[in-house]
């Protein structure tokens, strides 16, 4: 891959997006991360579908400064991937796990470990997220933005617990959550949270999303190899 030597020359690189580059594999990422991972603060790997737990282990071992990570649609990842990250990457405040197959227990364990740091979390279409995840999220005091769209195992009661407990929460996305009823909408006590995506609420009311400080750095996507 012609781009790898060029990337390795960037000694002070802090932000990298490899989003959608399906030729990226474990060997590519390992070689880059071992060489330059020590400075990386934000890494976007959405749709790099060849990546496995091996890459997450390398990231955990070499990216101690990592604070924002996007792992959307990496279907080869197992619960072990979250274990590697939880044990080593203690500065992650922004995490996107969209469309992955992680178990309820693995998500809960990660959140339990990182809950004091997490500010933005997306579990969009992580279908196994359920009761255990809700219990851990309820202890995430700094969480500002949460996307639980299409997480249909989360009950009204579970969502109520999250919203009532996370007093810093400003945005909750629930697109596709057809299980949610007015029991949750009218029953929670957090007047500061904006709930976006439910059929019973008008989406245009929520166009003005609060500015989230210190969330992912701006990056330029690497579009070709």
TrEMBL record:
> Per the UniProt entry, what are the Gene Ontology biological process annotations, in alphabetical order?
SCF-dependent proteasomal ubiquitin-dependent protein catabolic process
Q: What does the entry list under GO cellular component?
A: SCF ubiquitin ligase complex
F-box/LRR-repeat protein 15-like leucin rich repeat domain ranges (all copies): 48-183
One Pfam family recorded for the sequence: DUF7885
**Where does the source fall among the domains of life?**
Eukaryota
For this protein, the record's SUPFAM superfamilies field holds: RNI-like
- Specify the protein name: F-BOX/LRR PROTEIN
Q: Which organism is it from?
A: Salix viminalis (Common osier)
């Amino acid at each position: 891959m012609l781009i790898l030597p060029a990337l390795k020359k960037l000694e002070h690189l802090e932000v990298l997006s490899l989003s959608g580059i399906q030729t990226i594999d474990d060997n590519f990422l390992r070689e880059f991360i071992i060489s330059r991972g020590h400075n990386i603060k934000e890494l976007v790997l959405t749709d790099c579908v060849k990546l496995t737990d091996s890459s997450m282990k390398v990231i955990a071992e070499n990216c101690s400064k990592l604070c924002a990570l996007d792992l959307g649609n990496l279907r080869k990842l197992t619960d072990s991937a979250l274990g590697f990250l939880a044990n080593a990457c203690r500065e992650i405040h922004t995490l996107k796990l969209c469309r992955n197959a992680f178990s309820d227990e693995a998500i809960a364990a990660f959140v339990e470990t990182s809950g004091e740091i997490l500010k933005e979390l997306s579990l969009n279409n992580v279908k196994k997220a359920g009761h255990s995840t809700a219990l851990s999220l309820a202890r995430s005091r700094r969480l500002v933005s949460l996307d639980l769209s299409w997480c249909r195992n989360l009950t009204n009661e579970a969502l109520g617990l999250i919203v009532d407990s996370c007093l810093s929460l400003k945005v909750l996305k629930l697109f596709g959550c057809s299980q949610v009823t007015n029991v949750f909408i009218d029953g929670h006590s957090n007047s500061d949270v904006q709930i976006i995506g439910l059929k019973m609420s008008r989406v245009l009311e929520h166009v003005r999303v609060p500015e989230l400080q210190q969330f992912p750095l701006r990056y330029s996507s690497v579009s070709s190899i």
